[in-house]
């Protein structure tokens, strides 16, 4: 048992200690604010304060975890051996030359997303405004790296402590923004689509639409048999996130009451988990989340506990509060960027969402994703082969820290047609890798 002394126990500090020591290190610990008890304790001990108490391990604390306000803070960024660090300290007694706990909290809480920022066209926090992007460490799971370094320092000093390293895991997630390109979209949508393509001179698409509707060819977005084949071959943990809302400017899926579409979703549920993909409009009209979850539950006859926002159209903390308000959603997979890859929260493990504005830990479990197909192709303008190189790099980063690797693909991107030609082969290679 590791005894940790702190001058004052706050919600921020309690959350961070639990994340770092219990969840990521699996080290049993207890906390005290009693200096006399701490001094007399005969076992492994660590103090988090502005000065050591006895001859224990000591980490110099900066003010961040003892505050309740949200304000611009000086993160005092520096690098050492190509590893980035935040909240540099100058105490000779401290086992770290930075406040590792404050650094972890700053990243995981998404502190910078509670400060004023310029939103993108979809009212989202932009990757380019993040500290990780500006300093060039977005591709590194820095929180995992920092925690592993701290673990090594503690165990070197107190070898009698036990600590379990997590195991690397991979979650293959598929977003179903539009289950079919032409099928099940009704006479009006197909007619308008046909003449739109015709006016634009896209004769090949007009012919493709007709061949699909007359059952001469398979719908290009109907890649589900292929996906299921790989799931069974590699026994890969997979989640389908289904857009189950009404038609809108950014919501183009099949009508949720269409029987063929409902049968498809039921079939997918036999091979993988299914979560809700709250529609674009659901962030502005959160009551839609509840209705979409309930419709999906009625189709599958089972509770829907997982979500990922369509277009990643959400902001903190409102987006996560809206999910919790359903009383159903327990896990979310929206933490990442739409135009680049990397670790938005600096971590590749799941964690409980901390509502910084209300200053408390919630039970909503956040699973950050590392990369998305659309970000690679459209945001970063990579070819399939270039994308494979970047995916391997970021996968290796997760493997090196025994983290949780979460990827995002779409049934559309696995069509191996038009703009997605060549990407199916990359998907197969990376699943195998």
Describe the overall structure.
- With 433 residues, the protein is of the alpha/beta class.
- The protein has 14 helices and 15 strands.
- The strands form four sheets. Strands 9-8-7-15-14 form a five-stranded parallel β-sheet. Strands 2-1-3-4 form a four-stranded parallel β-sheet.
- Strand 10, helix 11 and strand 11 form a beta-alpha-beta unit.
- Helix 3 packs antiparallel against helix 5 and helix 13 runs parallel beside helix 14.
- The longest helix has 17 residues.
- The radius of gyration is 24 Å and the shape is elongated.
- The protein starts with a strand and ends with a helix.
- The model has no long low-confidence stretch (mean pLDDT 95).
Task: Write a concise synopsis of the structure shown.
The protein is of the alpha/beta class. 35% of the residues lie in helices and 15% in strands.
Q: Which short descriptors sum up this protein?
A:
433 residues; alpha/beta; five-stranded parallel β-sheet; four-stranded parallel β-sheet; 14 helices; elongated
